[in-house]
Amino acid sequence: MIVATIYIQPNITIESEIVGSNKFYVYNYKGVHYRVFSSLMNLREFIAKECKTWIFECDTENELEKYFYGSITKKC
Asked: How do strand 56-58 and strand 22-29 relate by DSSP bridges?
């Protein structure tokens, strides 16, 4: 479930998602590339230093939904 959406630029958003008891942050680049972060600190580090701190990345919303709801293997 999306809790909040923040627009960094018109084509880049960060969504706070809650899945079960876990909170995630999704960096959405133009709706064609998604990166999932397990903490706000990891997301900030990615934005500031472009470090590979995400726990999952994909190119479609369908893959993202499958990741959150356990239909595909998680990539780390």
From this structure: unpaired
Between CA 26 and CA 31 the distance in angstroms is 11
Contact between 4 and 23 (Cβ < 8 Å): no
Distance of CA 29 to the CA centre of its chain: 10
Q: Where are the domains of the chain?
A: 2-68
Its sign, for the CA torsion 68, 74, 4, 18, is positive
Give the integer Cα–Cα distance in Å for 3 and 15. Answer: 7
User: Are 64 and 72 a contacting pair, CB within 8 Å?
Assistant: no
Residue 54, φ and ψ in degrees, nearest 5: -80, 160
14-37 pLDDT per residue, tens = 999 988 888 999 999 988 899 999
